[in-house]
Amino acid sequence: MRIHTEYTDPSQYHSNNKHYNMDQSYWPDQELLAQFGHDKYFTNFCLAHLFTHRTFDKNVVGMAYIASSRKFTPWGICAKLGSNNIAFNTGLSSTMNTMGNNMLTQEAVLVTAH
Question: Is 69 inside a domain boundary?
């Protein structure tokens, strides 16, 4: 488990000059998921999930890539980097609802499990 207690230093940004943990107040949901997948650290694991506390557009509170259930297939659960050097074994969920309020614990658990 990796817990960030401060924003990532710009010297640690990826080749596209971004990092999922950079000081940026607004992230489109799909862009944040893709940026999270740029972290090569996560290719050491079969699944990586970003827990965040922010609002997204269009009532989105979580998302993930849909993977094959077969190991090591492209976009599969334990696959290596895919196109554009993005790991597709990633997902994200927020504990903030689209109105900017904290979710109930049961809501956050349901979003993450879904």
Answer: yes
